[in-house]
Amino acid sequence: MMKHMRLNVVFLFVFVTGFMPVIGGLANASGLADRVIEHKLANGLTLLMVERHQTPVVSINMTFGVGGVNEQVGQTGLAHLYEHMAFKGTRTVGTKNYEKERPILEELSRVGTELEERQRGLARRTTDGPASPEETAAIEALQKRFTALQEQAAQFVMGNEIALLYQRHGGIGLNASTGKDLTRYMISLPSNRLLLWAALESDRMANPVLREFYKERGVVMEERRLRNDDSANGLLFETFTSAAFRAHPYGIPTIGWESDILSLTPAEAEAFFKTYYGPGRATIAIVGDINPKEVIALIERTFGTIPAAPPPPQIVTVEPPQRGERRVEVEFDAEPSVAIGYHKPALGHADDYVFDVIDAVLSDGLTSRLYTKLVREKRLAASIGSDANYPGVRAPNLFILTATPLAPHTTAEVEAAIYEELERLKTNPVSAKELEKVINNLDADLVRALRSNGGLASQLALFQTVAGDWRYALKARDKIAAVKPADIQRVATQYFTKSNRTVAVLVKKQPDRKVAAVSGNEVTR
Amino acid sequence: MNSSKREALRVSRRGIILGAIVMLLLVPVLDASAGDMALGDPRQMKFKPVEFTPPDADRVVLENGMVVYLLEDHELPLISLSATVRTGGWLDPTDKVGLAALTGSVMRTGGGGGLSSEQVDEELEQVAASLNIAIGRQSGTTSLDVLAKDFKKGLAILAGLIRRPAFEPARLELAKLQAIEGIRRRQDSPGSVVSREFVKVLYGPDHPTARESTIESITRITRDDVAAFHQRTIHPNGIILGVTGDFDKQAMLASLRDAFGDWKKGEVPELRIADAPEPIGGRRTIRFINKETSQTHLRVGHLSIKENDPDYVALAIANDILGGSSFRSRLFNDVRTRRGLAYSVGSRLNAGVHDQGVWLMRAETKLPSTQEVIERFVANMERMRTEPVTNAELEEAKEAYVNSFVFSFASPSAIVNRLVELEYDGLPKDFLQQLRERVVKLTKEEILAAAKKHWYPDRLTIVAVGMGEALPKVLSSFGDAKEIKLAPES
Description:
The structure holds two protein chains of two kinds. Chain A is an alpha+beta fold. Chain A has three domains: about 20-95 and about 160-305, 2-Layer Sandwich (Cytochrome Bc1 Complex, Chain A, domain 1); about 100-155; about 325-510, CATH 3.30.830.10. Chain A has helices at about 30-35, 80-85, 100-125, 135-155, 160-170, 195-205, 215-230, 230-245, 260, 265-275, 290-300, 350-365, 370-375, 410-425, 430-450, 455-465, 470-480, 485-495, 520-525, and strands at about 10, 35-40, 45-50, 55-65, 170-180, 185-190, 280-290, 325-330, 335-345, 380-390, 395-405, 500-510. In chain A, strands 1-5-6-4-7-3-2 form a seven-stranded mixed sheet, sandwiched between helices. Chain A has a five-stranded mixed sheet with strand order 8-12-9-11-10, with helices on both faces. In chain A, a hairpin with a 5-residue loop joins β2 and β3. In chain A, α6 packs parallel to α11, α13 packs antiparallel against α14 (about 410-425) and α14 (about 410-425) packs across α18 (about 485-495). Chain A is globular and about 70 Å long. Chain A starts with 9 loop residues before the first strand and ends with a helix. Chain B has helices at about 5-15, 100-110, 115-125, 150-165, 170-185, 190-205, 215-220, 225-235, 250-260, 310-325, 330-340, 370-385, 390-405, 410-425, 430-440, 445-455, 470-475; strands at about 60, 65-70, 80-85, 130-135, 140-145, 240-245, 285-290, 295-305, 345-350, 355-365, 460-465, 480-485. By secondary structure, chain B is α+β, with helices and mostly antiparallel strands. In chain B, the strands form two sheets. A six-stranded mixed sheet of chain B has the order 1-2-6-3-5-4, with helices on both faces. In chain B, strands 9-10-8-11-7-12 form a six-stranded mixed sheet, sandwiched between helices. Chain B folds into two domains: about 60-260, 2-Layer Sandwich (Cytochrome Bc1 Complex, Chain A, domain 1), CATH 3.30.830.10; about 280-485, CATH 3.30.830.10. Classes of the chains: A alpha+beta, B alpha+beta. Chains A and B meet through α5, α6, α7 and α15 of A and α3, α5, α11, β10 and α13 of B.
């Protein structure tokens, strides 16, 4: 179901795990449709509000329709790095004196970019023998200047001041995440401190300053190592996704390829902000102890002064139809697992709702088909899961299945048993009882999502951004309820074919003792 | 970690003061033209204190000793119940480690109260009810989350599973196979390896807080073992239950009496865990595990105080400033922001309640910067012990604690679950309020004294997972480094 929607996000900060959107919470029964107050600013920014006065707190989710899909070749990881940089402050916050700091940052950017271009040029030399003494001396001089400038710039930094201000005023859950389709900034505060939030956020939406750039790039490299290089699952999914998408940017890891992360420049980050962070791409959802009239006035006064931005370039690439099964292997020092994906249409397509039902029937709960057959009855798998919306939702995506075999069974046996269940969807209609369970669970999830201010704010902003309408969740519920057994048979027959399939297998590798490699130009930073 | 350790951590993350207004850290803005500050400088903003009186829950003790906390909340048509049970892995026999956890798992999945396992799953999922039972090292927990209209059905199933679990042999067999698969997969993630090995080095591998099940210990466990463990350890007078949601209090009490009232009292196991022996003399313990990784996964720390220690608040705030408060902390600013050497870096004080606590610093960093990160850990720790924190740091910590205090009471279930946890741990119901009062009064001198008394740089345990021959060389500059060889699990 959508509650398992894997938006495949990477975070500013590791302590908080990803919030999985629940289509639930937005139940008709709860009267949500009447409780959401919508306001659109002249510059295109969308504001959504729900009043909840039980506790004097408020949760805010600011979501931008920008993500990994907006990156160019050679600049992968830029959307996520920018998200990190957004915490470095503005011309006012995060600095001791911006006027003195600015020229140093500008020179640092120029020197850093030239230094790295020359270092890469040197690394590419294969036949010309050692570098000329002039080139070596030039690089050394640039390196020296770079180090000196970094030290000078550091003198002006008020480290993490945005975060410090939020924390001092009782803010919790400060975080941000970057996915394929969207980038999100979250915080919860005592409700009488909304003014602080508006001041900080409107300032960083208008005047961000990308200080400490090269250090933060190092942080992101460590994040890549932690999430993708040292994680069996991280590496499996990176490889799987890039095998499934050969044209569309969904195939690129959101965190970026190592070489690209290490080549990103302050100028690229700045340009990315100017292109993609216009107010027209932003939705702010505020849920909690608020007075909507006052909030509208506050937002108008702050965010309202930010000029509208031109629409960013469209993504024109469409993934061509897959013409044959793709299989990839990842060798890793871990027990085996498998990921299987089938191409399918994007959010809003009639078949997308059918996949939501298939997802629930296959893997939602202990009575789901895959759990019953593979885990309980055949004892082939230790765990099994599925997801109808991987790795994003705005463009055609994948229906995925994942499993870990139960030793001594193999991934091949697990795969065969999964395919058997997918075939059964084609030939036998799903029972009325299974469909009823799907809807009962969806409706209950809808009510449960209303429990938390942060969860509700997240969902409103999510659907407003990816579907253009927060009511999408309510509408989707009715479409899902209308799915018939024959729809499931048709969709399963059409999409669950061998030629439309990508399979990635994690194969256990015995450890060897070679020394961990680190790119040369990273050590010097 | 047990629930009380989570509570402690939460405490150490919160912060600051009502009246105190301190702006020492912050430089006034000189450049009035910078930015579009329609609201003025956010650094100068002042707000009224957060006034909030959280609703109070009722506490009722049933005739058989079961404690019940109730708090009505009619916003949504939902009811949520959770209970803590005095049982746990500390009771596992040494040759059957994993018995408690397995018992909890099969109480949930093995049927009971006259229903087969399949009936239980089918009935719960058809009404979208969520029901969990689990037994951890120091407590058992159970929860039910259900639409109000289906509460009685859910409660009847829950009571059946807790009081008369069937432990169907096929489900026990499945749970054992899954437990064994979990053991086989234990070494897959370097983060999991370093966390577990760190705890084993601190407490010793046979201590109830650190010991682990093995394929042999799980294989040995029989259906008679789990049935006897249930029979012997789970009694109504060992259960503290909290319920919140859309119900009438009297009707709820009647339902709970129907479900549990005729359950007879039993002998509740005593929760007493022996202390681990302290390391002898002023020595560091340094261990490494060779695994193919791109980073060194690091844990650095030692055993620490319990939550009822008089120095707990001072040490918790010291830890908050050192590395517990993410963006605001010294370790985050030094290792991550200024040096760019780690993504996840910080320190934690997991003060114990029933066993000794653990204090640790952690990070993952590439091999070439491993030495620098450990050096920064030690240097920051030393600085906490030798010079007082700044006025600004103390005031920020206090403000953060006090201003975010309201979030500890943000929902009825948060309020009730805390009361259940505190009573289980033998702490007063206003424990958090007491902590807050002490935080507000805390001085720099008390923090310095606590850091000096409870942090020992010469007795650090350092555990690192990483690869290559360079790692032990790096580690030996901090003391004598020995390898832990992981036994193959399959």
